[in-house]
Write a structure and sequence with these properties.
This protein is an alpha/beta fold and about 170 residues long. It is built from five helices and eight strands, in the order αββββαβαβαββα.
Amino acid sequence: MRRLVLLVAALALVAGCTSHGGTPAQRRPAPALAGPLLDGGSYDLADHRGEVVVINFWASWCAPCRAEATDLEETYQATRAQGVSFVGINTSDPDTDKAKAFVDGRATYPSVVDTAGRLAMAFAAFGATTLPATVLVDRQGRVAQVIREPVRRAGFEPLVTQLAGEPRP
């Protein structure tokens, strides 16, 4: 419970901010990200090297997460043919059934279960400290951008497309 309180306090301090990883040479490697999926199986970010990966941190109780869900799914559908993959991170959400209900009909990409907030804390060093938070990882596994507010397709999809257009390693 204390960890959740600290996470919520940190989220409140930096809500609404966006940070950039800088030029490709200035970007830092993304933390390890692996865990069980909501619908079974497992996910490991390392298996997606060579792809642009969009990581979205969410919780079923988060109203802004609900508000951005359609924009995320539409951007996923529009960019996946460009070598872009998406993964949700269901963080600090104690009820897996509510998390599954949240995803049902909203997202066709996988979501990792992060009940304890361990994965979210690993990305806090990059400023991914709000719910929702969206992290763009380049094809070399480096954090290119962190968005700490609900995304909207009109502004978000061009960012993903631009990152997907960078040279492949």
